[in-house]
C-alpha cells in the first residue's frame, strides 16, 4: 500500500514530534523556515549561560526519513500547501496536514526564529554579553517567561539590579492560583523590584533604550540600560487566514474541532499554541495534542478509506482542572514552583529535579533518541 502523504507545517514543540513519530509509517514533509528545533524552555538559562544546555536539535538529526522544506507556508488548500523558499514558491500535496505554526514574541530573541543554528547561537551570545555588561536591567512582562528570565538573571548576575514590569495587577495571572504570590515573594526576597499595573512606553516595542531611561505609561521613569522584552506572544496563522478567513478568530487562533482538526476540514489537524481550545498556550499542552494527533493519524494511515476509521476525540486540558493543572515554573537553577494534579507545591526539590536543572532539554532529546546531555 502507498504510504499516505503527511505535511506538518511548523516544527516547534508540537510539529517536530508529530513529524518524528509518524515518519516511519507516512511520507512526511516538514515545513519550517529553520533548520533546527530549539527547546523554548531553555531560553531563560541560555541567556545567562549560552552553552550550558544542548537545546538545539537539527531536523536532520532526528528526522532521517522525512523531507524538510525550509520556508514559510503562505497558503493552504484542501490537499496542498504553498511554501515560499529561497528558490521561489513550491506547492506540496498532502493526504493529511498538521498546522502547528505556534506563536512569536515581540522580540524574536525569546523564541528561536533565526534560520540556522549558527545565526541563533550568535544572537543569544550578543544578548548574553549585553545582559552581562548591563548596569541595570528591566524585564518587561511578568508571565512565566518573564518571571523565569528574571530569576535566572538575579541568580547568575547578583550585582546587577533587575526590575520586572507587568501590565496586570499580579504576576502570572493565568498560572495556578498560588503561583502569583509565591513568585512575587520569591523574586522580592532575591532583590527584584516588581512594578505592576504599568506599561513600558519607551523604548518602543522590541527596542533597547538609547539614553538609559525607560518610560512607563504612569509617567514613572526607570534608570536602565538594557531591557528584555518577555511579553506579547501572538499566534502565527496568517497563512490560514489568507485561505479561510472564517476559520481564524480575531485573536489569530484557529477554529479547532473535538478531534483537534480544523473545522470543516477532516484531513487537516491543528496542534499547539494556534488552537482555539480553552487551554494554556504551553508546551505541556502541545504534548497532549501530539499524543492525540499521532494516535488518530496512525489509525488513518493504516486505512484505505478514512471514512471507515473511528477517531478518538480530544479532551481539552482546561487550566485549573485535572491535567490542566500541570505547570512547573523555575526560579533559577535550584528553585521553582510546581503545580501537579493533586496540588501546588513550593518545595524546590520537585521543580529542581523535574525541570530547573536542565529545563527539560534532556527529556526532549531522549524522546527523539538523541544523547540527552550532548549534541
Ligand atoms: C522562553 C519560553 C519558555 C517557555 N517555557 C515553557 C514551560 O516551561 N512549559 C511549557 O509548557 N511551555 C513553555 N513555553 C511555551 C511553549 O514553548 C509553547 O507553548 C510551545 O512552544 C508551543 O508549541 P507549538 O508547536 O504550538 O509552536 P512553536 O513551538 O512556537 O513552533 C512553531 C514552529 O512553526 C514554525 N513556523 C511559524 N510560521 C510558519 C510558517 N508560516 N510556515 C512554516 N513554519 C512556520 C516556527 O519556525 C516554529 O518552528 C515557553 C515558551 C517560551 C518562549
From TrEMBL:
<dbReference type="GO" id="GO:0004174">
    <property type="term" value="F:electron-transferring-flavoprotein dehydrogenase activity"/>
</dbReference>
<protein>
    <submittedName>
        <fullName>NADH dehydrogenase</fullName>
    </submittedName>
</protein>
<dbReference type="InterPro" id="IPR023753">
    <property type="entry name" value="FAD/NAD-binding_dom"/>
</dbReference>
<keyword id="KW-0274">FAD</keyword>
<dbReference type="GO" id="GO:0005737">
    <property type="term" value="C:cytoplasm"/>
</dbReference>
<keyword id="KW-0285">Flavoprotein</keyword>
<dbReference type="GO" id="GO:0050660">
    <property type="term" value="F:flavin adenine dinucleotide binding"/>
</dbReference>
<dbReference type="Pfam" id="PF07992">
    <property type="entry name" value="Pyr_redox_2"/>
</dbReference>
<keyword id="KW-0560">Oxidoreductase</keyword>
<comment type="similarity">
    <text>Belongs to the FAD-dependent oxidoreductase family.</text>
</comment>
<feature type="domain" description="FAD/NAD(P)-binding">
    <location>
        <begin position="5"/>
        <end position="279"/>
    </location>
</feature>
<dbReference type="InterPro" id="IPR036188">
    <property type="entry name" value="FAD/NAD-bd_sf"/>
</dbReference>
Amino acid at each position: 500500500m502507498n504510504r499516505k502523504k503527511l505535511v506538518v507545517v511548523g516544527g516547534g514543540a508540537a510539529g517536530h514530534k508529530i513529524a518524528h513519530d509518524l515518519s516511519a509509517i507516512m511520507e512526511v514533509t516538514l515545513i519550517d523556515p529553520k533548520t533546527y528545533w530549539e527547546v523554548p524552555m531553555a531560553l531563560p538559562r541560555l541567556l545567562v549561560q549560552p552553552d550550558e544546555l544542548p537545546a538545539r536539535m537539527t531536523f536532520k538529526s532526528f528526522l532521517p526519513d522525512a523531507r524538510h522544506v525550509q520556508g514559510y507556508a503562505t497558503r493552504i488548500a484542501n490537499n496542498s500547501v504553498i511554501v515560499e523558499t529561497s528558490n521561489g514558491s513550491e506547492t506540496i500535496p498532502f493526504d493529511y496536514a498538521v498546522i502547528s505554526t505556534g506563536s512569536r514574541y515581540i522580540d524574536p530573541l525569546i523564541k528561536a526564529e533565526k534560520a540556522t543554528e549558527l545565526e541563533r547561537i550568535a544572537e543569544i551570545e550578543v544578548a548574553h554579553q549585553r545582559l552581562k555588561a548591563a548596569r541595570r536591567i528591566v524585564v518587561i512582562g511578568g508571565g512565566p517567561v518573564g518571571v523565569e528570565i528574571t530569576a535566572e538573571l538575579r541568580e547568575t548576575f547578583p550585582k546587577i539590579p533587575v526590575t520586572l514590569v507587568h501590565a496586570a495587577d499580579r504576576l502570572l495571572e493565568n498560572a495556578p492560583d498560588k503561583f502569583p504570590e509565591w513568585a512575587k515573594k520569591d523574586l522580592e526576597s532575591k532583590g527584584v523590584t516588581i512594578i505592576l499595573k504599568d506599561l513600558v512606553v519607551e523604548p518602543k516595542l522590541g527596542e533597547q533604550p538609547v539614553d538609559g531611561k525607560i518610560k512607563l505609561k504612569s509617567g514613572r521613569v526607570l534608570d536602565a540600560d538594557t531591557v528584555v522584552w518577555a511579553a506579547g506572544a501572538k499566534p502565527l496563522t496568517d497563512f490560514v487566514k489568507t485561505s479561510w478567513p472564517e476559520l481564524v478568530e480575531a485573536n489569530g487562533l484557529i477554529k479547532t474541532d473535538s478531534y483537534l482538526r480544523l473545522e470543516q476540514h477532516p484531513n487537516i489537524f491543528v496542534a499547539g499554541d494556534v488552537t482555539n481550545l480553552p487551554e494554556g498556550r504551553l508546551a505541556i499542552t502541545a504534548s497532549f495534542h501530539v499524543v492525540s494527533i499521532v494516535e488518530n493519524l496512525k489509525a488513518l494511515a493504516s486505512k484505505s478509506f478514512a471514512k471507515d476509521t473511528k477517531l478518538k476525540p480530544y479532551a481539552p486540558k482546561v487550566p485549573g482542572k485535572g491535567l490542566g493543572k500541570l505547570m512547573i515554573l523555575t526560579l533559577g537553577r535550584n528553585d521553582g514552583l510546581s503545580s501537579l494534579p493533586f496540588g501546588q507545591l513550593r518545595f524546590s526539590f520537585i521543580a529542581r529535579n523535574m525541570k530547573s536543572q536542565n529545563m527539560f532539554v534532556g527529556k526532549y532529546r531522549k524522546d527523539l533518541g538523541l544523547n540527552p546531555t550532548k549534541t
